[in-house]
Amino acid sequence: MAEPSREIAVQARSVGNVAIIYASDYLNKLSGERIERECRRQLESGCRTLIINFRDTELVNSIGVSILVGVIDAAEQSTARLIFSDVNNHTANLFEMLGLTRHVSLAADEAEALSLVSEA
Fold first, then answer.
1. Is the N or the C terminus of the chain less surrounded, counting Cβ atoms within 10 Å?
2. How far apart are CA 105 and CA 69, in angstroms?
């Protein structure tokens, strides 16, 4: 008999009306879906800005990218701002090549991402 799967919660915190969601070390289907659920939950609760922190993320696969496109779409439909922070060079180049950076802001770290929000 298969053991029931345990849902691992995505680490997230709020700073005012900004939600910061922490991506795992490998952004694939499973971890991506968790991030997407948390982002949608935050948007539904009135969040105006989402920051996805990639400080622990070493690899993003194609399914992870497609899920991020869904998060971008959800943020745009909610007229919320989306910022990716702490993205390593390899992943930043991937996001640039795939055109994701036309829809999101990139910040060097979480502090810079929060300062982008306060400037708006």
1. N
2. 14
